[in-house]
Write a structure and sequence with these properties.
- By secondary structure, the protein is α+β, with helices and mostly antiparallel strands.
- It is built from 24 helices and 22 strands.
- The chain has a 4-stranded antiparallel β-sheet with strand order 1-8-3-6. The chain has a 4-stranded antiparallel β-sheet with strand order 2-7-4-5. The protein has a 4-stranded mixed β-sheet with strand order 17-16-15-18, sandwiched between helices.
- Strand 4 and strand 5 form a beta hairpin.
- The protein is globular.
- 39% of the residues are buried.
- GO terms for molecular function: [protein-PII] uridylyltransferase activity; metal ion binding; nucleotide binding; RNA binding.
- Its cofactor is Mg(2+).
- InterPro entries: CBS_dom, CBS_dom_sf, cNMP-bd_dom, cNMP-bd_dom_sf, DUF294_put_nucleoTrafse_sb-bd, GlnD_Uridyltrans_N, RmlC-like_jellyroll, tRNA_nt/polyA_polymerase.
Length: 636
């Protein structure tokens, strides 16, 4: 220990301390050892219980926890770095964890002693704070760009109107402008806030009346904007749907929301953006979901039980909204419910004495929910990816935690209107709950020994998408999956054969084949899945890692694998088929009938039959092209 302290005392800035100060700081210091993936600091720790660590050896990963459940890896700690100061300096406004990435050793000393020295030794304090300030600024840039184009924003695409149709032109102020100058801009422009940028493109932060008043109360109005601006700012992309952004404004009426296109600010939204939107009763749906305190409250808000939401979907259909955009709406609401269920399950685990998760994990959804093509009729398709934990001492405790936790999540979701999967594709099943290393190994074996039965589960799995936790685990797995499946022609063949199990019931001269007296047609098996499967196979062939059918079509078009006209035809067909299913489900719910994918041809009018016929013809064509291509022993 003494050798460590001698080495430590010679390190800058601790060399600035007197012998007495150094002895005071290290009197109760201790060496701590951490295994890979073990938490040095956990997000749920009380701030008063967090100590300061000096990294002696190893590597640490600093993780920021966002309100939507997503985790962002924002920096690494190396030997010689101080760990814990960023958590202390953020004063609880942002949640951080620090996790060992390899065998790591730190010198840990009490935060109280450190903060006492910060107060008494000004030179030492200035050096430490300067380093922390510099780090926070660089982290902000990274967090901002990751946030601006992350799932937090993509999941806000809730209804039908896009942000760029309602945003105002951005108003900027330079970071070196004074607080008084910023106040004048707000007054003259009649704004709630202004965007801080030195190049009128990239955002450094935002300043509003709250920050300006703080400066004036401190008689500091001649200081720079940079000192008082907010850097942790809620933002959206210009292509996002408008509704959740407006929900945020409804509950934060004195704020503005910056709008980004890629990394540049192109506009902003504010409270007056409400004025041109009708049906504002629906704005706060996701807010209510995120603030639900029990499963019963969530159940009432879920699409299957929420009559107001169903009425709104009917209005969207009547307004001509694309069927796949409405399904994305439903999927986004479902995502929110899943996330809140996971929060509730974690709280139950803590209440029952199991504590917080000892390792990072990622909750994934698959199938139509993964593609964001969910309708009202659904079951659960989900799984868990865990950090590698097999080398940790408490392996059995970790496995027991996630076994119980995943059961809670699946059964809570069932209570919210998401039936248990009859095929067992759920996180509570061992087959769908693995560490990232096990997933990678199983993927290799799965692909190698694939048969006709397994291909059906594999098809559902291929459309997985992360919705909670450490998204990097899902991204790692997606990268491995895309790379491996692209090269496996026998898997392509199995996927093609599986999609041919159900032929599109469409005969020459436009005759649609129905079943039974009502001439029923199963929209999912007869047409929707033909389009979804064909586009998936094309995407696999060309190494496209997108998940949603529309996203895949866009990528295929960009890479000149699909002609734009063919892609638009496929989108049109999918829109019509999904809309038919949504209308059928709404009718079934209104009449208290079981939800199905069947539609009666007898109940369609002439125009509806024409639209259905055109959609089926496109699905039939896609199926035929796939079959002909593979019969020639090559992949289209």
């Amino acid at each position: 220990m003494e050798a460590y302290l001698n080495m430590f005392q010679s390190q800058y800035p601790f060399s600035l301390l007197s012998d007495e100060e150094f002895e005071f700081l290290t009197k109760h210091a201790q060496i701590k050892d951490y295994n890979p993936h073990q938490f040095i600091i956990h997000e749920d720790q009380n701030e008063d219980d967090i100590d300061i660590h000096f990294m002696i050896s190893g590597l640490g990963n600093s993780i920021m926890h966002r309100s939507n459940g997503k985790q962002l890896s924002i920096r690494y700690y190396y030997p010689g770095d101080l760990v814990g100061m960023m958590v202390v300096m953020s004063s609880g406004e942002m949640k951080f964890s620090v996790q060992a990435m390899e065998t790591t050793q730190t010198l840990c000393f009490p935060k109280s002693a450190f903060m006492t020295l910060m107060s008494s030794n000004r030179q030492f304090s200035n050096v430490v704070l300067e380093g922390i300030s510099s780090t926070m600024k660089s982290l902000y840039q990274e967090i901002k760009y990751k946030s601006a184009d992350s799932d937090e924003e993509s999941e806000t695409e809730l209804y039908t109107k896009r942000v760029d149709g309602y945003m105002e032109s951005p108003v900027f102020i330079h970071s070196s402008a004074t607080i008084a100058e910023a106040a004048k801009v707000l007054q003259e422009k009649e704004l709630e806030g202004v965007i801080v940028s030195d190049n009128h493109k990239q955002m450094l932060g935002m300043i509003g009346y709250s920050e300006i008043l703080t400066a004036f109360f401190q008689n500091d109005q001649d200081n720079y904007v940079e000192k008082y601006m907010k850097t942790d700012v809620y933002a959206v992309m210009s292509s996002n749907f408008i509704y959740e952004a407006l929900s945020y404004l409804k509950h934060h009426p004195t704020s503005i929301i910056p709008v980004f296109y890629k990394e540049n600010v192109v506009g902003f939204l504010r409270q007056s953006s409400f004025f041109n939107i009708q049906d504002s009763i629906y704005f706060d749906l996701t807010y209510r979901i995120s603030n639900s305190i029990d499963v019963e409250e969530l159940r009432k808000l879920s699409p299957f039980y929420n009559k107001a939401f169903q009425t709104f979907v009917r209005q969207l259909i009547n307004h001509g909204t694309f069927g796949y955009e409405i399904c994305e709406l439903i999927s986004s609401v479902n995502d929110r419910i899943h996330k809140q269920v996971i929060h509730l399950a974690e709280e139950e685990m803590k209440g029952e004495g199991y504590g917080t998760p000892a390792i990072n994990y990622c909750f994934i959804v698959m199938g139509s929910e993964g593609r964001k093509e969910q309708g009202f009729s659904t079951d659960q398709d989900n799984g868990l990816i865990l950090s590698d934990y097999q080398n940790m001492k408490n392996v059995e405790e970790i496995e027991q935690y996630f076994r119980l936790f995943s059961q809670k999540v699946n059964f809570m979701l069932e209570q919210c209107g998401f039936p248990l999967c009859t095929g067992g594709i759920m996180s509570k099943e061992p087959k769908w709950r693995h560490s990232i290393g096990e997933w990678a190994h199983n993927l290799e074996e799965w692909i190698k020994s694939m048969d006709a039965q397994e291909i059906r589960d594999f098809t559902i799995f291929m459309d997985f998408r992360p919705i909670f936790g450490d998204y990097s685990l899902a991204y790692q797995l997606r990268e491995k999956l895309t790379e491996k499946v692209k090269k496996k022609l026998h898997v392509h063949q199995l996927l093609m054969k599986d999609t041919l199990r159900f032929r599109v019931p469409f005969q020459p001269f436009g005759r649609i084949i129905g079943v039974g007296k009502q001439r029923n047609l199963n929209l999912k098996k007869s047409a929707i899945m033909q389009i979804v499967n064909a586009v998936r196979i094309y995407s696999i062939r060309y190494g496209i890692d997108s998940v949603g059918t529309i996203d895949r079509l866009n990528r295929l078009t960009e890479e000149e694998r699909f002609h734009p006209r063919d892609a638009e035809n496929a989108k049109m067909a999918l829109h019509r088929l999904l809309t038919f299913r949504l209308e059928q489900n709404l009718s079934q719910m209104e009449n208290n009938k079981p939800l199905t994918n069947d539609i009666s041809l007898h109940q369609l009018n002439k125009e509806e039959k024409r639209k259905l016929r055109e959609a089926l013809a496109i699905a039939k064509r896609l199926q035929q092209v796939l079959e002909l291509s593979y019969n020639r022993n090559r992949v289209v």
